[in-house]
Design goal:
heterodimer; A: alpha+beta; Aldehyde Oxidoreductase, domain 3; 6-stranded mixed sheet; 16 helices; 31 strands; disordered N terminus; disordered C terminus; B: alpha+beta; Ubiquitin-like (UB roll); 5 helices
Chain lengths: 758, 153
């Protein structure tokens, strides 16, 4: 099958077509999952463990059931089927029994006639606990062998050493995805023992698989429907309330709605893995990177979730987008009694990026070399081998181009603005302009595209020609990123039709589209849409006996020979496409192999103003060049870049879930700080277009790269401004004002501050 | 029982005890456009204009709104067509998931009614109580400075 971009297509690929749901969203008419209602519906609520680790001695539902309007209280005893779920392995009980393993773990669920009554009922369920000592130190967990996965990677010449050595220890805190829409859904029983669940999620079919297994139901008894998603960023890849909703609906025979409040949302989904990383870099005097050793400990928390794959990403990309002759990486994802960690934008890549980019700056300082020149000297490109897995890079990888593009961008006016809104500390007027120190930092990051390590990664799209145009049916989840727009564009370019509609199909109508994660939907569901639309077009031309298709119908030699409706007389024109990316392999015993389907790079340069006495930071500017393969929708890509950078800036300077003995101390938007309009830096972005080998029209996914190296760039800029070591993110005021004595740099280069080329 | 004028229409509602205006609007008056994202006045997703003042409706007790006039996202457009702010935000890519969008439209409309030509700094300050997790704010600021005619050079 050949596919071509058809000339003259309005709103096809390469244009900034506006999103089809923009108008209902701007008018407040778009239905999010939390806006759904059904006749006679009940509200559900969750009873959660107040202890990170405790033995459940007794559960007494009577006080809750005594409240007027309460319809049921359910525990794990009421769960039929396996009673367990989990993305990588079903290790998590639907409701805790025996022992609770993290703070906020669901123990019971209730349903009542209204939301407030359901909340009161949840508070009224009496649970007796025997509190146990939680395991909260991931290093201790690793020593005890309490891990989800350990990895050792050895590649290259084990005896190769460099003359110049820098070492460092780094730490990344726990970040929350904090989508504005909390977890919510509506389950409607069908009266025949089945349920229709309307849910905001990232992966409809993975949810479906876990719901039916946990509840022991035939797959066709449960149908999952995409409901409006208020952002995700990884937080909706795991099950939260899906099974609870179906169980409550089945037991009460009534529709049941649940909406988490913000505090509950913080404990109701997985988070970015906190990480502790030790690094040793060795280089020749000319700046050639020779040897990288690293040890990564990720805290996976209580349950497996995707810890295994996140750790793998951390280890595979532990060196960054650089060549190295000798690599030894060890990694472990610890099993603790902290909140469960899993997917968040970047999926294991941002943590090592913060560390390896700090190391590259320290190496540049030790060499007396320009940090940008050092990166260029070692930059990975097509035909090189990934230094950890030894995999040959066959697609595009313009590491050199993204670095050079950002380095060439103009810097802002070095003068600090006199508007207090532009100063560290803002309108608090804490910082006199004369006290501000400017810093500039540079960072580059790399990540895999789509799923890896032999996972059978596919997406289904059904193309359907109707009298009104082309429909593209998919179960893929639109989380706000704009996949719905890109699919429409691909459909237009491939078919020649302007009237293309994306139809979100439930799990009974079509196969899996895979997860809206791993930057994969543009390539995977986009790839399926391209083939489906092309096949529909070819069949339409065959039936019509023509050479051109548009909204009017099939044309031959400039004359309309068959209107669209006329093509359907012999039955529908449909094509179901199941798209797979090139196969990937499992790693060998030393972490080597063709484990990835493709790669993407981006570079960031941050400019910060710092008040060194108060330790306050304002990120002034964050410029980037990103490898996009081919820009299918430049406006949407810019939206991903600016939004992703903001989350990277958040991790750099303010966003952290603070844990004390496994208990979250700041599960609210008052205490977990998110960047606001006033915190947002100016962003300029360059899209580097070098078509990749398998994405539609050469496109790569674009969602994650903005979040990978933006954090590292901000940290580098703060180092540049202050000379403080900055070995952990988020950077706290005391790390700037007093240094970070608790995580010292062991390098002899400690005192020297890297200074990127400006 | 409270009486409020919502988007120019007289309405009555019977909020339960300490119920917020947001809950009354969403669950009793059939106006789900205002969103609940934090329920503590930090994110602005529930922004409405109450007797001319921009408020987080999650922080207002419905009972205290008795006798008031409320404008919500459902009543912010320009006689059935998008207002200039809505038009500009959609066109600039200022909408992604859209959960913060109603609150931002209401807050920006309130700002522009008081100050039709705000500078970028004034826009950022006026909207600092509205959190968006998707866009990084850039596209929204570009949209609003264009409406204000004060785009940065």
């Amino acid at each position: 099958m050949t596919t071509l971009v058809r000339p003259g297509i309005v709103g096809g690929v390469g244009t900034s077509l506006l999103r089809p749901d923009g108008i209902p969203k701007i008018k407040g008419e778009f239905a999010f999952s939390s806006d759904l209602e059904a006749e006679g519906m009940l509200w559900g609520a969750t009873v959660r463990s107040p202890h990170p680790r405790a033995r459940i001695v007794a559960i007494d539902a009577a006080p809750a059931l005594a409240i007027s309007g309460v319809r049921t209280v359910l525990t794990q005893d009421d769960v039929p089927g396996s009673g367990h779920f989990g993305l990588e392995r079903p290790d998590q009980p639907v409701l805790a029994f025996g022992e609770t393993r993290y703070w906020g773990q669901p123990v019971a669920i209730v349903a009542a006639e209204d939301h407030e009554t359901a909340r009161r009922a949840a508070d009224a369920v009496r649970i007796e606990y025997e509190v146990l000592a939680p395991l909260v130190d991931p290093a201790e967990a690793v020593r005890l062998g309490s891990t989800f996965r350990t990895i050792e990677i050895r590649n290259g010449d084990p005896d190769a050493h460099g003359e110049i050595v820098v070492t460092g220890e780094y730490e990344v805190g726990m970040q929350d995805q904090a989508p504005l829409g909390t977890e919510s859904g509506l389950a409607i029983p069908d009266g025949m023992g089945g349920v229709d669940l309307h849910i905001a999620t990232q992966w409809l079919h993975a949810d479906h698989e876990q719901v039916v297994a946990a509840l022991g139901l035939p797959p066709d008894q449960i149908r999952l429907h995409n409901a409006g998603v208020g952002g995700a960023f990884g937080s909706r890849e795991d099950i939260s309330l899906q099974i609870h909703l179906c169980l409550l609906a089945l037991r009460t025979g009534r529709p049941v709605k649940m909406v988490y409040d913000r505090a509950e949302s913080f404990v109701g989904h997985v988070h970015r893995h906190p990480a502790r990383m030790r690094y040793r870099h060795e280089a020749d005097r000319d700046g050639t990177l020779v040897r990288v050793e690293a040890d990564l400990v990720f805290d996976g928390g209580a349950y497996a979730s995707t810890s295994s794959a996140v750790l793998a990403n951390g280890c595979y990309f532990a060196v960054g987008p650089y060549r190295a002759k000798s690599v030894h990486i060890t990694g472990a994802s610890a099993r603790t009694n902290n909140p469960t960690a899993g997917a968040m934008r970047g999926f294991g890549a941002p943590q090592p990026c913060f560390a390896y980019e700090a190391q590259m700056d320290r190496l540049a300082a030790a060499l007396g070399m320009d940090p940008v020149a050092l990166r260029l000297r070692n930059a990975l490109g097509t035909g090189d081998r990934i230094p950890t897995t030894n995999q040959v890079i066959v697609g595009s990888l313009p590491t050199r181009e993204v670095i050079e593009s950002v380095a060439a961008m103009p810097l802002p006016d070095p003068e600090t603005a006199d508007d207090p809104r532009s100063l560290p500390g803002g309108t608090g007027l804490t910082t006199p302009p004369g006290a501000v120190r400017r810093g500039i930092g540079f960072a580059v990051g790399i990540k895999n595209l789509a799923f890896s390590e032999s996972f059978d990664d596919f997406s289904e799209v059904r193309g359907v020609l109707t009298a009104d145009g082309l429909e593209l049916h998919t179960a893929a989840c639109e989380n706000g990123q704009g996949m719905v727009t890109v699919l429409e564009q691909i459909g237009r370019s491939a078919s020649g039709l302007q009237r293309v509609t994306v139809v979100f199909a439930d799990t009974s109508k079509i196969g899996s589209a895979g997860s809206t994660s791993a930057s994969r939907q543009t390539q995977m569901t986009g790839g399926a849409a391209l083939r489906a639309a092309t096949a529909v077009r070819e069949e339409a031309l065959r039936r019509g006996g023509g050479d051109h298709l548009d909204d009017a119908g099939v044309w031959r030699g400039g004359r309309l020979v068959a209107p669209l409706a006329g093509l359907l007389g012999d039955g529908p024109i449909e094509h179901l496409e199941r798209f797979r990316h090139p196969p990937t392999a499992k790693p060998d015993a030393f972490g080597r192999g063709d484990v990835h389907a493709g790669f993407v790079v981006a570079a960031h340069r941050a400019v910060v103003d710092v008040d060194p006495e108060l330790g306050l930071v304002r990120v002034v500017r964050l410029d980037t060049a990103q490898d996009v393969g081919r820009a299918l929708n430049p406006l949407s890509i810019l939206g991903q870049i600016e939004g992703g950078i903001m989350q990277g800036v958040g991790l750099a300077v303010m966003e952290e879930i603070v844990l004390e003995g496994g208990v979250m101390k700041n599960a609210s938007f008052t205490d977990y700080l998110l960047p606001t309009f006033l915190d947002a830096p100016q962003v300029e972005a360059i899209l580097v277009e070098q078509p990749d080998h398998w994405g539609p029209f050469g496109a790569k996914g674009v969602g994650e790269p903005p979040t990978i190296s933006s954090t590292a760039a901000v940290a580098a800029a703060i180092r540049d401004a202050t000379g403080a070591p900055i070995n952990r993110v988020p950077v706290r005021p005391q790390d700037i004002a007093f240094g970070s004595p608790e995580s010292p740099v062991t390098s002899h280069q400690q005192a020297k501050s890297p200074r990127p080329r400006s | 029982m409270i009486r409020i004028t919502v988007n120019g229409v007289a309405r009555t509602a019977d909020p339960a005890g300490p119920e917020s205006l947001l809950t009354t609007l969403r669950d009793r008056l059939g106006l789900p456009g205002s969103k609940n994202a934090c329920e503590q006045g930090e994110c602005g997703s529930c922004s409405v204009i109450l007797d001319g003042e921009l408020v987080c409706s999650c922080l207002v007790m419905a009972a205290d709104a008795d006798g008031s006039e409320v404008r919500t996202i459902e009543g912010i457009d320009d006689h059935g067509t998008l207002n200039a702010i809505q038009e500009a935000m959609v066109g600039a890519g200022g909408v992604q998931c859209g959960f913060c969008t109603p609150g931002i439209v209401v807050a920006a409309t309130h700002l522009f009614e008081a100050n039709p030509h705000p500078t970028e700094g004034e826009i950022r300050e006026a909207l600092a109580g509205n959190i968006c997790r998707c866009t990084g704010y850039g596209a929204i600021v570009r949209a609003l400075t264009a409406v204000a005619g004060t785009e940065a050079s």
